[in-house]
Design brief:
The chain is of the alpha+beta class and about 80 residues long. The chain has a single domain, classed as Beta-lactamase Inhibitory Protein, Chain:B, domain 1 (2-Layer Sandwich). The chain is about 25% helix and about 35% strand. Strands 1-2-3-4 form a four-stranded antiparallel sheet. Strand 1 and strand 2 form a beta hairpin. It is elongated. The mean pLDDT is about 95.
Length: about 80
């Protein structure tokens, strides 16, 4: 939470999807263990978008623990 797109890319590599629906931006990262969707919004006072919400799931759609997913993505 609170990370910029650049910081996420440093942690997880290039996203598999990068979707923009102003003012939001969604970055999707995946591994064999899970899929992580990070939603970024710009601060009220302007500036670079930051993560305000994340969703984590398996490829079959089942919800997984967000912390476990983040750790699995960082390992690769």
């Amino acid at each position: 939470m609170g990370k910029t797109a650049r910081q996420l890319t440093r942690l997880f590599g290039n996203p598999q999807a990068d979707l923009s629906e102003p003012p939001a931006r969604k970055l999707q990262f995946s591994s064999g263990a899970c899929i992580l969707d990070a939603y970024l919004y710009p601060p009220a006072n302007g500036g670079e978008g930051r993560v305000t919400h994340i969703d984590a799931r398996r490829s079959d759609g089942a919800i997984v623990d967000r912390v476990s997913c983040v750790n699995a993505l960082r390992v690769r």
